[in-house]
Amino acid sequence: MSTTSDLLTKYLAAEEAILDGQSYTHNGRSLTMADLRWVQAERKRLQRIVDVENGTGGGGFKAATFASTGHCS
Questions:
Q1: Which pLDDT belongs to residue 58?
Q2: With 0-12 CB in 10 A as exposed, 13-18 as middle and 19+ as buried, what is 8?
Q3: Is residue 66 part of a domain?
Q4: Which of 5, 35, 56, 60 could make an SS bond with 1 (beta carbons 3.0 to 4.6 A apart)?
Q5: pTM of the full predicted structure?
């Protein structure tokens, strides 16, 4: 597993923690431990990197292979 995969796993856990209510209110003041939008954006960025590393990224460009046929025009 790559370092990027490890980070992705941590961001997924962080996103889940935020969604499970990682904020609270006390005496009229609210505290949120992390920014959900930022965590989601970073998770998506890491997912794209992992997909490329694993060769499963879709929607991108693929490398073309040109075989020499020995013919010249």
A1: 63
A2: buried
A3: no
A4: 5
A5: 0.58
How many other C-beta atoms can be found within 10 angstroms of the C-beta atom of residue 42?
Answer: 16
Number of domains in the chain: 1
What pLDDT sits at residue 2? Answer: 76
> Could you list the residue range(s) of the whole structural domain that residue 29 is in?
3-54
Residue 31 lies in a domain: yes
Determine the Cα–Cα distance for residues 17 and 33; give it in Å rounded to an integer. Answer: 10
Residue 72 is assigned to a structural domain of this protein: no
CA–chain centroid gap for 56, Å, is 13
Angle between helix 36-54 and helix 3-19 axes, rounded to 10 deg: 150
17-61 confidence digits (pLDDT tens): 888 887 778 889 887 777 889 999 999 999 999 999 998 876 555
Residue 73, in any domain of the structure = no
